[in-house]
Amino acid sequence: MDIVVKGRKTEVPERFRKHVAEKLNLEKIQKLDAKVISLDVEVSKEPNPRQADRSDRVEITLRSRGPVIRAEAAASDPYAALDLAAEKLGTRLRKQHDKRFSRRGARRIPAAEVAEHVPGAAVLNGNGLAAAAEEAGQVPTKKVGSLEVQGEGPLIVREKTHVAAPMTLDQALYEMELVGHDFYLFVDSETKEPSVVYRRHAYDYGVIHLRTDTMITQENSPEAGGTLGG
Hints:
Required for dimerization of active 70S ribosomes into 100S ribosomes in stationary phase; 100S ribosomes are translationally inactive and sometimes present during exponential growth. Helix content is about 35%, strand content about 25%. The protein has helices spanning about 15-25, 25-30, 80-105, 115, 130-135, 170-180, 215-220, 220-230, and strands at about 5-10, 35-45, 55-65, 70-75, 140-145, 145-150, 185, 195-200, 205-210. Helix 1 (about 15-25) runs parallel beside helix 3 (about 80-105). Residues about 225-230 have low confidence and may be disordered.
């Protein structure tokens, strides 16, 4: 595999190409990700003199059988920008490597052993109910996130709320690749509706748009039912 270095509206000197090959050590990269397919480096220059301290931008794109990893940085010269981008790439590669390693090494704890590994965990009987609740003849009720669960129910419910500015579909795809996820929830800047982009097979992507149907909302509302019934 070779490193492809190209310039966008700027010339790339041979000296810089050699520096890229030295800075981005392929042997070290392949130790962190053995399935690397290509490594591209794009150099661009900002002509605005007011942005002289960030005039040179370097973007590194690493493609493998897993998620695409991108790292970019801007500085007053291309060499400094490359150093910053290479450091970001290394951090993200190590994060992906550690994530894969932890998944492989993770071991699920059988339900019968939970009490031994988790202090304060409830002791369950053969029906999956807490022993104390069975003695009292009651089905335990617990609050999990925004749900009220009786008896058997979801063991883990993770609830998150994010504040995000509307963005285009292209930007959402870029953000998804940047964080290395298989899907990305965003607010479409054109429709102002929530949407999801997701990874399909190979390098194909899909998008799901969520749109409110006012007719369904009216039919399901208590007021609408009362009007029809009267």
